[in-house]
Design a protein that fits this description.
With 128 residues, the protein is α/β, with parallel strands linked by helices. It folds into two domains: 2-50, HAD superfamily/HAD-like (Rossmann fold), CATH 3.40.50; 56-120, 3-Layer(aba) Sandwich (Rossmann fold). Helix content is 40%, strand content 16%. The chain has five helices and seven strands; from the N terminus they run αβββαβαβαββα. It has helices spanning 2-9, 33-44, 56-66, 80-90, 119-127, and strands at residues 15-16, 22-23, 30-31, 49-50, 74-77, 93-97, 114-116. The strands form three sheets. It has a three-stranded parallel beta sheet with strand order 5-6-7, sandwiched between helices. Strands 1-4 form a two-stranded parallel sheet.
């Protein structure tokens, strides 16, 4: 991390995947990428550019690389704050799976187009 700090102070740009500080998807809380990036922001005085979900860069790059339009894509995810929020803001229909990182309290601000309980439900939804 000290080497990264030296590079940043020497003019490098700080780019992070996402600003999430904690991830509990493995069953217990763990520091996430945003914790390390935030530490580097504070230490260097720089502001990071985030390119992962929910920011548009990752959605734009993915669709362009696949040659698809937003109408041809369905974002399926278990995290409201990154998967669903990012898809909604980019104009992609979204499906929330109530498992993994799903937190019902996050549904107050962001609503998916569909909510399912398992991947089996997704198969049924897509096939109908």
């Amino acid at each position: 991390m000290n080497q990264v700090l030296k590079l940043l102070l020497g003019g490098a740009e700080l780019i992070g995947m996402n600003p999430d500080l904690v991830d509990a998807s493995s069953g217990s809380p763990e520091l996430n990428v945003g914790s390390w990036v935030r530490m580097l922001e504070v230490a260097s005085g720089l502001e990071a550019t985030y390119i992962g979900k929910p920011f548009p860069y990752v959605f734009k790059l993915t669709l362009e690389s696949m040659g698809l339009d937003t109408e041809q894509v369905l974002m399926v995810g278990d995290c409201v704050d990154s998967d669903i929020k990012g898809a909604n803001e980019f104009g992609i229909r979204s499906v929330l799976i109530r498992m993994g990182e799903f937190n019902p309290g996050e549904l107050k601000e962001t609503q998916p187009d569909f909510i399912i309980d398992s991947l089996t439900d997704l198969v049924g939804m897509v096939m109908s």
